[in-house]
Each structure stands twice: as structure tokens, then as C-alpha cells.
């Protein structure tokens, strides 16, 4: 199923429809402030395993991130952080960043690898945040990759739908996506270590 949702003012009925799919263990492809993501409810083990199969990776080796709706939501899944890091998060989020933290026991066991870390995103995209808010818990997320060497990420939701319609229950057309991923920052040591340069520039917030 392909549904159109406008990012400026997401239709509550359409959001409910997406949430129903997630609650039943379905997979969705949805827009963020960077590239389109493939996601599921983090509490649904079968859905997580399905995403791992699509991506060809083992759950314990996966570097998935959680899409959260706001800062208070993040604290449910990570070990306490110091005020300096919190202050930067407050300024930088919502935004095109993935912050890696030490995970607490609320992170689903299937995803608790030996690393005990979790990547957290609060995208600057009302559709993604509204889905999570209505669902009541984060969605597990991974990027939609493209096999084309020139196009690392697909940006056209209709083409994404054509490619993935057999593998996912629902694709959201939220307009063209970006083809630059989020900037990934490791905060597990209490400092900011940039793992991958992407769309966000952390210097603007430190």
C-alpha cells in the first residue's frame, strides 16, 4: 500500500492507519529529514527479524537506530548522560543526527548485542515523529539503500514503492527524500565522536 501524507500537516487518519500496520507487526517505509527509512515497532520481534532478512544482516550485528518523538522519549532507552551532552541534544534535535548512547535494559533483547549501545534519532520531520508519538514507543529504523552505485539512496517514494511493495506492508509518500544520510555521533565515552559525516553539522550546536 502506498499512501500520501503531507509533511506540513500530517493527516491524523493516515497516521492512525500507519500505526495500525506497525501494531500488527507490519513494516513501513517512511520519510525523515534525511533519507527514507525502513521501520517497524521496536517491541515486535518478528518484524525486527523481517527487517534483518531484507537487509541481509543478523539481529545481533545490526546497527539500527530508534526513531523517537522527543528528548524525554530518548531517556527511556539510554543510560544517564551528562548535562553537557544533554544541552547539545536539546539544541540539535529534532535534526539530521544519529546519536549513539549506552543502552539501558529497555532496549529489546533481540537488539542487545555485545556492544550494548543504541543509535537514537529525532528527525526534523513531522510525519516520522507523529507516527512514533501515536504509536507510543520508538520505531526501529534502517536506511533504504539503493543498489545503483551512483544513487546510494532512493529519493522518489513511488520508485521506492515499486521496489519494496512485496517486502513491506506500507510505503508513505511524504514527498521526495534527501540522498544524504544523518551525521552519526558516538556519545558513549561522554564526548562527541563523529563516526559518519552526513547532513547535520554538529559544530553549529556545540
TrEMBL record:
<dbReference type="InterPro" id="IPR052532">
    <property type="entry name" value="SUA5_domain"/>
</dbReference>
<dbReference type="InterPro" id="IPR017945">
    <property type="entry name" value="DHBP_synth_RibB-like_a/b_dom"/>
</dbReference>
<dbReference type="InterPro" id="IPR006070">
    <property type="entry name" value="Sua5-like_dom"/>
</dbReference>
<dbReference type="Pfam" id="PF01300">
    <property type="entry name" value="Sua5_yciO_yrdC"/>
</dbReference>
<feature type="domain" description="YrdC-like">
    <location>
        <begin position="12"/>
        <end position="200"/>
    </location>
</feature>
<protein>
    <submittedName>
        <fullName>tRNA threonylcarbamoyl adenosine modification protein (Sua5/YciO/YrdC/YwlC family)</fullName>
    </submittedName>
</protein>
<dbReference type="GO" id="GO:0003725">
    <property type="term" value="F:double-stranded RNA binding"/>
</dbReference>
Amino acid at each position: 500500500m502506498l499512501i500520501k501524507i503531507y509533511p506540513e500537516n500530517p493527516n491524523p487518519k493516515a497516521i492512525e492507519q500507519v500505526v495500525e500496520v506497525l501494531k500488527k507487526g507490519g513494516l513501513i517505509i517512511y520519510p525523515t529529514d534525511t533519507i527514507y527509512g525502513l521501520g517497524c515497532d521496536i517491541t515486535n520481534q518478528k518484524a525486527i527479524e523481517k527487517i534483518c532478512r531484507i537487509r541481509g544482516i543478523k539481529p545481533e550485528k545490526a546497527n539500527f537506530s530508534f526513531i523517537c518523538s522527543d528528548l524525554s522519549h530518548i531517556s527511556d532507552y539510554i543510560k544517564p548522560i551528562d548535562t553537557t551532552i544533554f544541552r547539545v541534544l536539546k539544541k540539535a534535535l529534532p535534526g539530521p543526527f544519529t546519536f549513539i548512547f549506552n543502552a539501558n535494559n529497555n532496549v529489546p533483547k533481540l537488539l542487545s548485542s555485545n556492544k550494548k549501545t543504541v543509535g537514537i534519532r529525532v528527525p526534523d520531520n513531522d510525519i516520522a515523529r507523529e507516527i512514533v508519538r501515536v504509536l507510543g514507543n520508538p520505531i526501529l529504523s534502517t536506511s533504504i539503500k539503493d543498489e545503483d552505485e551512483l544513487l546510494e539512496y532512493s529519493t522518489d517514494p513511488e520508485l521506492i514503492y515499486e521496489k519494496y511493495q512485496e517486502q513491506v506492508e506500507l510505503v508513505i509518500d511524504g514527498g521526495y527524500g534527501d540522498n544524504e544520510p544523518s551525521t552519526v555521533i558516538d556519545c558513549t565515552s561522554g564526548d562527541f565522536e563523529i563516526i559518519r559525516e552526513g547532513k547535520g553539522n554538529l559544530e553549529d550546536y556545540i
